[in-house]
Design a protein that fits this description.
The protein has 238 residues and is α/β, with parallel strands linked by helices. Helices cover 36% and strands 26% of the residues. The protein has a six-stranded mixed sheet with strand order 6-7-8-3-9-10, with helices on both faces. It has a four-stranded antiparallel sheet with strand order 2-1-4-5, with helices on one face. The model has no long low-confidence stretch (mean pLDDT 93). The chain binds adenosine-5'-diphosphate and magnesium ion. Its main location: membrane.
């Protein structure tokens, strides 16, 4: 469950090739971070995996099946955005339950799943509030709760903490790492922040202009950066 393989995936917008042919394996249960400077193609790559963009060529396999023609809602993935995308007029409970309502899950089951997610995320006391009555960190937890109730094959995070202040970012980093340890679900996490990458990842994918500059564990990248770009970006001594 949850293995994702990119095979010679490319993406062009018009005549501009943003992702040249790219191969990458993401193992079941791995916490993979895509890191690189702004504009290097991190979000595009994540959106291709999610199905929010179509590949120009190549194949994306999820659990050994070609997912390229599978619509986003059927890929079994849950995306968490930096903008939260919560419904302001709905309670926290209804926001978290929303994907379950769409899937016609009955109310008792919805409540059970929402309450289990709220328990993990320390939101139990906030279920009847509206998003406007929450802090930034709590709103981000609601967005994560909405992903958890779908029980996805993998979570996809696109710079989920960039709207939060520095202290809260450190907290949320730990919370997301703990969530990964308890759920053991594959997570793909996009950030331009080297510290986030180094502290959270099992495997880091460093991107430079749509190409993979290096793939490795934080320690491997730190100890043996393969090129000057990785050395400079990760801040390791080369
Ligand atoms: P990152 O998330 O790493 O900042 P993106 O994946 O958003 O980078 O963008 C990679 C490149 O693709 C950028 O040059 C960006 O301008 C371009 N790009 C992204 N989305 C589109 C689009 N819908 N149409 C045209 N160009 C795009
Ligand atoms: Mg981006």
């Amino acid at each position: 469950m949850g293995k994702i393989a990119l095979k010679h995936v490319t993406k062009s917008f018009g005549a501009t090739e943003v992702i040249p042919p790219l191969d990458l394996d993401i193992e079941d249960g791995e916490f993979v971070v895509f890191v690189g400077p702004s504009g290097c193609g991190k979000s595009t790559l994540l959106r291709l995996i999610a199905g929010l963009e179509d590949v120009t060529s190549g194949m994306i396999e999820i659990d050994g099946n070609d997912a390229t023609k599978v619509p986003p809602s059927k890929r079994g993935l849950a995306m968490v955005f930096q903008s939260y995308a919560l419904y302001p007029h709905m309670s926290v409970r209804k926001n978290i339950a929303f994907p379950l309502r769409m899937a016609k899950v009955d109310e008792a089951e919805r409540n059970r799943k929402v309450e289990a997610a709220a328990d993990i995320l320390n939101l139990t006391d906030y279920l009847e509030r509206r998003p406007g009555q929450l802090s930034g960190g709590q709103r981000q937890r609601v967005a994560i709760g909405r992903a958890i109730v779908r029980e996805p094959e993998a979570f996809l995070f696109d710079e989920p903490l960039s709207n939060l202040d520095a202290a809260l970012r450190v907290n949320m980093r730990l919370e997301i790492s703990e969530l990964h340890q308890s759920l053991k679900t594959t997570m793909i996490y996009v950030t331009h922040d080297q510290v986030e990458a180094m502290t959270m990842a099992d495997k880091i994918v460093v991107l430079n202009a749509g190409r993979i500059a290096q793939v490795g564990s934080p320690l491997e990248l730190y100890r043996s950066p393969q090129n000057i770009f990785v050395a400079g970006f990760i801040g390791s001594p080369k």
